[in-house]
Amino acid sequence: MVKRRCKGHHKAMGKSKRKDLPDLGHLARPGAEIRLRVTPRASCNAIVLSEQGLKVLVTALPEGGRATEAVRRLLAKAMGTAPSNLDLRQGASSRYKVFVYLGPERD
Predict the structure, then answer these.
(1) How far apart are CA 42 and CA 23, in angstroms?
(2) C-alpha dist (Å) from residue 12 to 23, 31, 50
(3) For residue 14, is it within any domain?
(4) Is residue 18 part of a domain?
(5) Among 83, 92, 35, 96, which Cα is nearest to 63's?
(6) 19-31: pLDDT as tens digits
(7) Which domain holds residue 36?
(8) Pair 61, 40: CB distance under 8 Å
(9) Which of 33, 45, 82, 83 is most deeply packed, by most CB within 10 A?
(10) Residue 34, beta-bridge partner list
(11) pLDDT tens digits, 43-98
(12) Residue 39 lies in a domain
């Protein structure tokens, strides 16, 4: 098991700053499907790019859709778009989720 230390978040957990997230603006194409794996109850909010794809870590609990909404907000921030432009297509109660980008193409 690999332990990850979250940069700059060791004292103040919670909101991630835009500069701490990878730039996922290239995913902001109308109709693009974004597949990812979620880790709820993480020590910090982060997005990790790996060979297996996107991994999104959120501090939210997986109850009542809280983790899914936290993922939507974090993903939108990394893409430089509004959370309302991301629609959950699959995985409402699963670690594996598919979001579809519904907004305008980003320049």
Answers:
(1) 21
(2) 22, 35, 25
(3) no
(4) no
(5) 92
(6) 689 999 999 999 9
(7) 31-101
(8) yes
(9) 45
(10) 99
(11) 999 999 989 999 999 999 999 999 999 999 999 999 999 999 999 999 999 999 99
(12) yes
